[in-house]
Amino acid sequence: MTARVLGLLAPLVFAASTVAAQNGYPEWNGRAVQDLAGVLSSKMEDSVRTLLAPARNQGYDVRVVTVERMSHYDVGAATIEDFARGLFNAWRVGDRPENDGVLLVVATGDRKVRIQLGDGALRYEQAAQQVVADSMVRWFREEKMVRGILRGAAGVAQWFTPEGQAAFAAPPPAPQPVANTPQPAYSPPTQPATQDGLLMATLGLAVLVLGTVGFGGWLRNRPRNCPRCRTAMTRLDETSDDVYLDSGQKTEEYLNSVDYDVWKCAGCGTHTLERYSRWFSGKSACPSCGYQTVQTTRHVLQYATYDYGGREEVLRDCRHCGFHDRNVVYLPRRTRPSEHSSSSSSSFSGSSSYSSSSSSGGGGHSSGGGASGSW
User: Fold this and answer.
1) Which phi and psi angles does 195 have, rounded to 5°?
2) Do β-strands 271-277 and 324-331 pair in parallel, antiparallel, or remain unpaired?
3) SS (H, E, C) the chain
């Protein structure tokens, strides 16, 4: 009889617990990763935490959370922007005076992603848009959820490396004149003879480069005669010359890695094809098809520390034939700073706290800055 009563009450208890779980935002588990959607294995959670550890050890509150659907939480959020902002503020992410917390939210069932930034981290807004578009959505569209989350966490973690902080550092303020202090009259500075020589050398180099470019342009545009009948040839426009290009050459032109000129004889119909590689296109030759259609991307798998080297993943993908390969490059150990710098860094790292109960100057707030994506 008791077992039967318990069996009848079980669905009611489950329903009550579900309602309670959906009443407001979920409670933070106190860790850097909270996988409420259940898409990460314990090993993958550890990988994400490892990616975020260098930033968090420096005092930056960076977290990753997955939910299945936003509608499971009765918070009145109609968009991923509203949901992420509300969750950021409810969890008080980055609760310190700098207010530079970062929360990466993935709603798997809604197919939405958002990087929410604290009001003191808005300098990362453009970088966040790039991480969402290039490191996450592209993988989510291929149904590679775990890879997209790992790439997103790695992209955010790069902001807090020494190189990333140097890139995002604000320029020092210009010195302000002291009030009521007379300013000296301006006099043009005199340039030493060495500076004059450097200026002349720079101008000479510029003239040489411009002359080389101009000569190259003349060679490309000079009139041509047909090699068969010696009739003057005409260069076809970019639309008409596609008839004489194969699929790989068309892909090269589409990627702006190579430009082709087609010259055609009006007399006998003979045509010639001339190839011009573009500088700094970022594309390399494919070892499979030979076209200059390979794009290389790099992702840090493990950041280098003072004691251990790191690892970087190098992916090569051909936009023409589909060639793909992956290599892991080992990064050297970081150079240990001076003793004074180490002690300063240690004191800074130890002064931060991720506890939601530790309020320090009104931190842990976002007014809506960040970047969103869908797939």
Assistant:
1) -70, -35
2) unpaired
3) CHHHHHHHHHHHHHHHHHHHHCCCCCCCCCCCEEECCCCCCHHHHHHHHHHHHHHHHCCCCEEEEEECCHHHCCCCCCCHHHHHHHHHHHHCCCCCCCCCCEEEEEECCCCEEEEEECCCCHHHHHHHHHHHHHHHHHHHCCCCHHHHHHHHHHHHHHHHCHHHHHHHCCCCCCCCCCCCCCCCCCCCCCCCHHHHHHHHHHHHHHHHHHHHHHHHHHHHHCCCECCCCCCEEEECCCCHHHHHCCHHHHHHHHCCCEEEEEEEECCCCCEEEEEEECCCCCEECCCCCCCCCEEEEEEEEECCCCCCCEEEEEEEEECCCCCEEEEEEEECCCCCCCHHHHHHHHHHHCCCCCCCCCCCCCCCCCCCCEEEEEC
Choose among 349, 309, 348: nearest CA to 329: 309
**pLDDT tens per residue across span 196-249:** 667 777 777 776 766 666 677 777 888 999 998 989 999 999 888 888 999 999
pTM for the complete prediction? 0.48
Cα-based angle 340, 54, 56 (whole degrees, multiple of 5): 100
Strands 62-67 and 102-107: parallel
Q: If 0-12 CB within 10 Å is exposed, 13-18 middle and 19+ buried, where does residue 159 land? A: buried
Structure-token match 């842990």, residue found = 364
CB atoms within 10 A of CB 244: 14
Distance of CA 231 to the CA centre of its chain: 53
